[in-house]
Amino acid sequence: MKRFAITSFGDAEKVFQEIEAAPRELTTPRHIRVAIKAFAVNPYDIAFRKGEMSPKRLPNFPYVLGKDAAGIVTEIGEEVTQFTVGDPVIIHPVGGAYGEEIVLPGHKAVLKPENMSWAEAAGLVTPGITAYHLVTHFLKPPPKTIVMIQGASGSVGSLLVQLLKQLDVVILASASSANKSFVEALGVDRFAAYDKEDVGAAFLNQADIVIDATKGGRTSTSGMAIMKTGGTYVALNRLPEEHARTKSGIYRQFGPSPEYDDAEALRALSHLFANQQLHINIAQIFTPTLETIVQSHHLLEGHPPNGKLIFEW
Prior knowledge:
The chain is α/β, with parallel strands linked by helices. The protein is built from 9 helices and 16 strands.
């Protein structure tokens, strides 16, 4: 079984290696085995590979990254009742998806809709879970709320737009001018291109909620300008430091939490996709090789294209 692992923390070209691993046994009667058809690369993978996640203990190297994938169930534990062999599934393991096969708990998988491609299924997982929990459990915006999404063309940002469109809210959005048509097609109410105008001035004091979904959280100054006094500022990356906050309000950082049910999120998102109410943007599909794995990490570290980077076997 082919897998791509890191041998230590460090630069992609120095630490990745291709390994051959024997298939694992099912760990418990509640586990399943999945032949992976596609997997995605995420910013989390980059941070983990660089040693920036501060794990409680060091992983056992060589360590296989990957939390987002899709494939076909090839074996089920005797206590698994929700799947049968041959089922197409979307999976969200704690790691190990950069490979041909994985064993994981059955509750970490949901059925893939028939009209969803393998690439779309793999591309949905982490961005979709993040967007779903943020909208459904974290914010729960009431009708007529004005929400600003910075980084609306990104994987999370574009899904946030689509989920918020299911609610009776007003959506303001920013992205580069190159992505204007893409973001507007998602259904935003107003758009501003950060490379053409001052987004903070364009939407000054207009948003009840500001969501910074940009890479690295680079837009806090304009985000605070857009937020109404007393509003809510949510960062998916870094919050502005307290001394730099230019306006009173609620400042909250959002990330994964054991309080949320990720399978619930994937089932809800799959239902929307099956009913053609959700679009997953794929930037590029690679054939898995050591060289393309390294290439994808470099792309994501630099100026990545608009959409998900996917590997298909």
